[in-house]
Amino acid sequence: MFVTVRYGDDQRKIFNPHSKNENLLENIKLNCGCGEKEVVDVSDERGVVKNLRNFPSDYGSDFLKERETLVLLTVQNGVTATDDNISADNDRPVFTPHLTSLRNDREFLDTLNQDVDLDQSDSLSQSGRRHHMSEGDDDVFHKEKRKGKTGTPGKKSILRRSTKSALKK
User: Fold this and answer.
1) Is 95 in contact with 81 (CB distance < 8 Å)?
2) Cα(8)–Cα(99) distance, integer angstroms
3) Among the listed residues 109, 42, 30, 110, the one whose alpha carbon sits nearest the alpha carbon of residue 73
4) pLDDT in single tens digits along all 169 residues of the chain
5) Do residues 63 and 128 make contact, with C-beta atoms less than 8 angstroms apart?
6) In degrees to the nearest 10, what's the CA dihedral of 25, 16, 128, 72?
7) Which one of 47, 63, 148, 165 is CB 3.0 to 4.6 Å from 112, fit for a cystine?
8) Of 62, 156, 43, which is closest to residue 107 (Cα–Cα)?
């Protein structure tokens, strides 16, 4: 599984999202020429922010689709935007695309910085996840996953069962 991140003058880099969001965002920051103290996140190409930074211990693969193309964003918290293209309250983050071609795209910027209730933003970011569960269920899911008890049985386990039943006869 991989995702493509677009930034700069239509540059693209491929990343493996099967890591914790904190590590994934650090890797993206390092490889896409961002500043060390810069806060980053990603959005889809329509401007829907993925909010990976809000779930640092979760895996990127739970939020992102296989082969998805993403746009690198700078996140500024608690600032009043001075740019004419963006307006924000002091308590909301301001998202700015690193992709040069989208910096003046009004529709994209409006989608990025839409007024969303802070309570709704949690449910919106959660809706992007493939696994819908409470925090307690999340721990159980990962433990069961390591034991191999989630999902459908693979070919090997079916083959083992049929071989065992054939040997018993």
Assistant:
1) no
2) 5
3) 42
4) 899 999 999 999 999 999 999 999 999 999 999 999 999 999 999 999 999 999 999 999 999 999 999 999 999 986 544 444 444 455 789 999 999 999 999 999 999 998 654 444 444 444 444 443 334 444 444 444 444 444 444 444 444 444 444 555 4
5) yes
6) 40
7) 47
8) 43
Q: Which residue has the tokens 């979760």?
A: 58
CA gap 62, 131 in Å, rounded? 7
The Cα 141–Cα 16 span in angstroms is 21
Tokens of 165: 């039943």
What's the pTM? 0.65
Amino acid letter, 116: V
Residue 22 corresponds to which amino acid? E
> CA 102 to CA 86: how far, in whole Å?
13
